[in-house]
Amino acid sequence: MNDEILPIPRIPEGLREAAIRGTLIPFVGAGASRLAGCPDWNGFADAALRFFVEKGKFSHGQLAQISHLSPRVKLAIAKGLQEEHQIPIDFKKLIHPEGHKKNPKGLRLFGSLSALGKTFVTTNYDEWLDEELKTQELSPGIEPDHSKIIFVQKRKAIHRVSDFTADTLHKNNLVIHLHGSLLDPDGMVLTTQDYVQHYANDRFSIGQGVENRVLTFLEYLFDRKTVLFIGYGLEELEILEYVILKARHKPGFTTKEAKHYLLQGFFSHEQELMVSLKRYYLQECGIQLIPFLRDQKDWDQLLDVMEELAQKAPAKDVIPLQEFGDMEKLLK
Known about the structure:
Layout: H1 13-21, E1 24-28, H2 30-35, H3 41-54, H4 60-65, H5 71-85, H6 91-95, H7 104-116, E2 119-122, E3 131-135, E4 149-154, E5 156-158, E6 174-177, H8 192-198, H9 213-224, E7 226-230, H10 237-248, E8 260-266, H11 271-285, E9 287-293, H12 301-312, H13 320-331
Parallel strand pairs: 1-2, 1-7, 2-6, 5-6, 7-8, 8-9
Antiparallel strand pairs: 3-4
């Protein structure tokens, strides 16, 4: 049954082929970082405001008054307080309160990711993808011996829009932080205004004759690579809309088959929801939904799923013919 939700989903042949060709790009979202010990959006925004409460620049009463506001509004307020009082927010401490190397689920998840890809794109700010992890063995359903997880080397982290170029997707040991990085807190895309500027629809709205490098980069990514979205739940639909629809929806755009894939967890009673989303992602975004069952382990099931993927679709170098075709298209 094609619409069955399994604990370990079947790997689509197109995804496996992309891994063999070396054209598979893992695109990592907030759900992966949450599983690895980072706060969710609400927790992150509240922590940024509590930072100023601890500094005596914001009161508990004020914090309670705005508790119902969206995370982006809270982050805009926090950025305003930062500018007003000239006190830089310690974003690294907020995102990695205990240090990312100490989280066992994070080691397990990002160890699998290291086996699955060589080049990564992420909308996360954290440091989990900034280092390559290596595990000696991966067995789905069995937590690996963390003493065998090794930090191999630093990945090159690209986070400035000026560096978002198509040729970066042909390099190994690299991560592209689409919304900024802890390496440059001032450049992090946090507020609604930041998002609007980052994904400006009008290519020339940021200046006469100046293209929006973000959209150009994303168009090339979706055209020449196969993307696997990991860590994007229903609450991140808005992010997917920014990232996918604004880069792909051109006049006359139609989708007949999937080139990209999205891992998403569901409970068994969400069968109808899954079927509806499967249709939406394919028709609107050109993405095949790969559902997995959360009934037994909730989001921890993603750990098993990723280990299975890492075993059956490990990263390969780009084959020369594929690389030649990509570079020829760039030159044109």
